Amino acid sequence: MDLQLLLYPMLDDRTLSHGPQDRGRLVWTPGANRAAWSAYLSHPAGQDEQRPYAVGARRDDLTGLAPAWIGVGDLDLFYDEDVDYARRLEAAGVAVELHVEEGMYHGADALPGTADAPSMVALRGRMAEAVRAAMQREPLDRS
Fold this sequence. Notes:
Layout lengths: L3 E4 L22 H12 L26 E6 L5 H13 L4 E6 L16 H19 L7
Parallel strand pairs: 1-2, 2-3
């Protein structure tokens, strides 16, 4: 099974401020993002990065990657970078399904009291369907 199952993925260490519509003001903020990237990269986020696979958004060639399912809320700090990654995958000939959940911020699906919300049930259902579909496909030949 080959699949990138990406739920509001953190793909670009250069996303260090709020985007339009004050994205990133709830749960995962630019400050949290900066701290997480800096810890992961062992240098300040947004600086030059020499490791070609350390930061997904910095990868030039996306050709040959596994098909992707990407889910992100329109209020998530990662919205722009996730939509951009989906477009870049598609341009590289990679099958991609992008789902944007209206009114969802980063991690909203994991907060107490949200598990039974119809939109979150539907989101998990779409993720499960992507996994089922991937399990039925032939694996990619990477030789």
